[in-house]
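Appendix C reproduces, verbatim, an entry submitted by the partner laboratory led by Prof. M.T., so that reviewers can inspect both the input and the predicted structure.
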Amino acid sequence: MRVVLIGPPGVGKGTQASQLKALLGVPHVSTGDFLREAVQAGTPLGRRVKGFVESGQLVPDDVMGELIAQRLSRPDARAGFVLDGFPRTLEQVGILDAVLARLGVVLDRVFVFTAPEAEIVRRLAGRRTCPHCGAVFHVDSRPPRSAGVCDACGSALVQRADDAEDVIRQRLKVYAEQTMPVIAAYGERGVVQEVDGSGEPQAVFARLQTGLAEA
């Protein structure tokens, strides 16, 4: 099974991808993860990526295409994959098409997760992280035992800069502008399945499993 997960920031794609990986027995291919992996490995391609990552610039599409081609060519991805974070633009759809054509495979399904904007803003704006140990909390759904203090190590919790409400709304605007055309393009191929991302993760996963059964 070869699937792509699409959805706005904060909709829960990462959580669902982890569960889907276990269910299908295929790798979860996250663009953020394999970018970091390439940099740490110090390969020629990783060294090219490092400059972009460290400067905060977007990695060019042609470089991303090479990375994805390398990752999807590994033995663990032969039976399928859960791709998260790519493609995000129409140009990247073409790149992924070319990679899959070289591998002689096609996408089975593109799952599009949705949730009301107010819910996404609530989820992200309420998130607090520990800069020391990486633990994640939420002011409403997973508050620390002591307000503003990490349960694990006692460090002061912080709000990430990209979790500020104005930044979240800008990220959602960019998503709509760039990614909605991607959804439309895949919709024309008849592979899109929408999944309601509202509610608890297990309820969302149950809807995702229903979508898989229909794929």
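Strands lie at 2-6, 28-30, 81-84, 109-114, 127-129, 136-138, 192-196. Additional entries are available on request from the coordinating office.
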